[in-house]
């Protein structure tokens, strides 16, 4: 399955949450409450450009007088712990936490519980402690989808399974969501006939580290590499940069995840094969609704339980050149005017975007 739309159940569940969230809240009960939104790093632009603005916008709709404290830990678990302590001191009653280190975050959950502060695990789960709620995309499903999409493309192009294989560039080893994506990738590659030549867990999701590793593998395996399953657009772009620096032309198909502007432009240019469109504002809005319900002492409705935590997961769409216009432009996720500039104008014309 190379292109699957949002699960209707997930969309319906969000709709129910939004309805309950907007249905005449007793604003006096939660007026002037403080909510913290703690993000893990700036390796991806999504937190600054989508998650944070989306969360703030929904909070303003639901509780105009509520205060939102935003902090980014810059991939530093110690810094995130300091930020966590700081927002509790500042009176945060609910903390939306996207952990730098999923294992280390367990102690933060316990600290919060001891002080009556509610925790929403966001994007990345916290396996070793039960948060009050978990909101995310289906990370295992994402990993499986991008890998299957790549495999189907390779087979459609009649790329032989013998004599070559794929590289696998995973996310941070301290990120439980990266572990779920990795599990999904393994499932997507299983029984495909394409072997994994080598794989790498990218510290802090850092593109420079992914590029350095990819460069070494290009030297090591030469022309054996038929594709790259990269866990996000940053690591995928890093792999593409490594191939170009090595003079490889054409670049083997490379996957991604997050539908960043840079990745969408790489797809338009023909350098990246796929990405995942997951408008972070959707998850951010769901987290805001859960936060307000927790402030009111209500129990948010969960679709499932993951790591013993009530959870709501959304399944996004795989984007390739074939459906980029339909999934990105037509759905108004990113305007054509932002993508189709400079050297990407010609590619946009070929895809019927402009």
Structure description:
This protein is of the alpha/beta class and 354 residues long. The chain folds into two domains: 8-138 and 280-314, Rossmann fold (3-Layer(aba) Sandwich); 139-277 and 318-350, 3-Layer(aba) Sandwich (Rossmann fold). 45% of the residues lie in helices and 18% in strands. The chain has 14 helices and twelve strands. It has helices at residues 8-22, 27-30, 46-62, 77-89, 105-114, 139-156, 176-189, 207-221, 233-245, 261-269, 280-295, 324-329, 336-339, 345-350, and strands at residues 34-39, 67-72, 92-97, 118-122, 133-137, 165-170, 195-201, 225-230, 275-277, 304-306, 309-314, 317-319. The chain has a seven-stranded mixed β-sheet with strand order 2-1-3-4-5-11-10, with helices on both faces. A three-stranded parallel β-sheet has the order 7-6-8, with helices on both faces. A two-stranded antiparallel sheet has the order 9-12. Helix 7 links the parallel strand 6 (165-170) and strand 7. Helix 3 packs across helix 11 (280-295). The longest helix has 18 residues, at 139-156. The chain starts with 7 loop residues before the first helix and ends with a helix.
């Amino acid at each position: 399955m190379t292109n699957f739309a949002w699960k209707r159940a997930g969309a319906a569940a969000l709709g129910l949450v939004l309805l309950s969230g907007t249905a005449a809240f007793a604003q006096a009960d939660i007026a002037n409450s403080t909510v913290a939104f703690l993000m893990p790093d700036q390796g991806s632009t999504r937190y600054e450009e989508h998650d944070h603005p989306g969360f703030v916008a929904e909070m303003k709709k639901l509780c105009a007088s509520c205060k939102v404290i935003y902090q980014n830990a810059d991939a530093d678990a110690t810094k995130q712990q300091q930020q966590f302590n700081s927002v509790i001191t500042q009176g945060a009653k609910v903390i939306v936490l996207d952990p730098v280190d999923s294992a280390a975050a367990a102690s933060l959950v316990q600290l919060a519980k001891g002080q009556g502060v509610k925790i929403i695990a966001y994007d990345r789960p916290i396996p070793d402690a039960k948060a009050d709620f978990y909101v995310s995309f289906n990370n295992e499903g994402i990993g499986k989808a991008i890998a299957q999409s790549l495999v189907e493309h390779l087979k459609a192009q009649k790329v032989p399974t013998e004599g070559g294989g794929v590289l696998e560039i995973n996310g941070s080893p301290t990120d439980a969501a990266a572990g779920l994506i990795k599990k999904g990738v393994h499932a997507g590659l299983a029984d495909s006939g394409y072997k994994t030549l080598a794989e790498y867990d990218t510290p802090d999701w850092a593109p420079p580290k992914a590029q350095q590793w990819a460069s070494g593998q290009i030297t090591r395996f030469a022309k054996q590499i038929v594709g790259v399953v990269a866990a996000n657009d940053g690591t995928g772009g890093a792999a593409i940069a490594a191939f170009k620096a090595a003079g490889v032309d054409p670049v083997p198909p490379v996957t991604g995840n997050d539908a960043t502007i840079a990745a969408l432009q790489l797809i338009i240019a023909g350098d990246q094969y796929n990405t995942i469109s997951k408008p972070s504002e959707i998850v951010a809005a769901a987290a805001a609704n859960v936060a307000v319900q927790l402030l009111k002492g209500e129990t948010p409705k969960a679709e499932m339980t993951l790591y013993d935590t009530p959870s709501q997961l959304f399944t996004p769409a795989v984007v390739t050149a074939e459906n980029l216009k339909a999934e990105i432009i037509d759905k108004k996720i990113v305007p054509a005017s932002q993508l189709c500039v400079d050297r990407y104008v010609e590619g946009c014309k070929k895809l019927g975007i402009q």
